[in-house]
Amino acid sequence: MSTKPSIYKILNIRKDGRDADFRLGAVSIDFYEDIMCPTVSCTIQIANSGGVITNEETGKKVSLYEGMKIRGGEEVQILIAANSSTNEDLDYSATSPLYLNKISGLIRDDRSEFFKMHLVSREAYDNEVTFLEKNYPEGVPASNHVKDILSNSFVFSIESDVEETTNEFGFWGNQMKPFDALLKIASKSTSGTGLSESAGFFFYQTRRGFSFKSIDSLVSQSVNVPKYVYTEYNVSSVDFKPVGDLISLDYKITSFQVNQTGDMIADLRKGTFSSTRRIFDPVTFNIEVDDNFTGNDYSKIKTLGEAFSEGEDSTVGGVDLSKFPSQIITETKDVGTANSGVSKKENQDPKLYVSQRKMRYNTLFSQSITIQVPLNTKLHAGDLVECVFPSIGESEVPEKDRTQISGIYMVKELCHHYDTQASYTSMMLIRDTFGERQK
């Protein structure tokens, strides 16, 4: 099983040409990915007793924290070997190390020390010292600007998966930092064509590199791992035989928690079901009041569960709340801002994305569960997984719940946990509608 103990092959911190191997001091390691975060991160819990580093001045053995004079910015190399044939190495060694951001929870006495190392990717540091100062011209897909920023903002080249956008717009860098600009572009980008055109992108980093992906493409991808199944039966790994949907103990949900199944008041406050748009034109000084935007205008979006139904999902007391806008969105037309000279050309129509993105982002996060499973390093933030939960009833053999919490979810964030006793993966999963996805 993938819950086997972790195998630390390389745990090394480097500073000023000196190296320290701290494998014996690492109690646990947690590696994080999140579709809401542009960089990966990692924490390492250290319990260090006795001297491990030679003090250059006294020649005596001192602790890791004292001997390496850890201040932040140090290079940390990590290589944790796969603990099963179905897993992959966690490899941030010589060619792509992580970097120390800070130390927290430092406890010391005259014999031991305890602290936590917080690590980030090199790109997190590059982002803070890089500023966008040029003009990103209009008339080209927004995804072209994403590729430009990624290729010119970071010291080392990194793999990236950039989805083509259907909208075009330009902007000035205005000393924005790369991640700020990329997240701004993501919130204004659209994918698809015609009636199925959809707003809402994510920009994030995983072990595979950077991803700039639309919600539509993420929810439309295939589920590439077997179903994860929750069962209260404890089955020995020695005599286990596949039962129903559970083909291996590697895909058994060891624990789960339902975080959220919807919040109608919050959805109304955010304008998820219906909104009206008032667009100010800085050239004419007129305010355009648009017709109400509802989910019926967006009914062909792809979902992780049953097809979106405005009347069914937004009805309270027999009243369809989608017919009553619950938020007024104000926006200023982007006219002439991407040109060096005088221009009245509209850079991008706000009506293409301001209401659409509110609905798309908010519905995607309307349902959330957290599960823990045996370690699976082939999973990444943004991937899809299918979870099977039993239906509560009088049957001796529990049936699959098909209408409520079972179904396909997107990995919003995950944590791969490693220690010398066991290894597992925790995930927060999200989805937009109940039930099973239509084939």
Describe this structure in words.
Among the domains are: 7-122, Elongation Factor Tu (Ef-tu), domain 3 (Beta Barrel); 126-216; 264-363, no CATH class. It is flat. It starts with 6 loop residues before the first strand and ends in an 8-residue tail after the last strand. The chain has helices at 64-67, 122-128, 142-152, 178-188, 215-220, 264-270, 310-313, 354-364; strands at residues 7-15, 18-21, 26-34, 41-49, 53-54, 61-62, 75-81, 90-92, 98-108, 112-120, 135-136, 160-162, 171-172, 190-191, 198-199, 201-206, 209-214, 228-230, 252-253, 255-260, 274-280, 287-289, 293-294, 315-316, 319-320, 328-332, 334-335, 346-348, 367-374, 384-388, 407-419, 423-431. The strands form eight sheets. The chain has a 15-stranded mixed beta sheet that branches. Strands 21, 22, 23 and 26 form a four-stranded mixed beta sheet that branches. It has a three-stranded mixed beta sheet with strand order 12-17-16. A hairpin with a 6-residue loop joins strand 21 and strand 22. With 439 residues, the protein is mostly beta strands. The protein has eight helices and 32 strands.
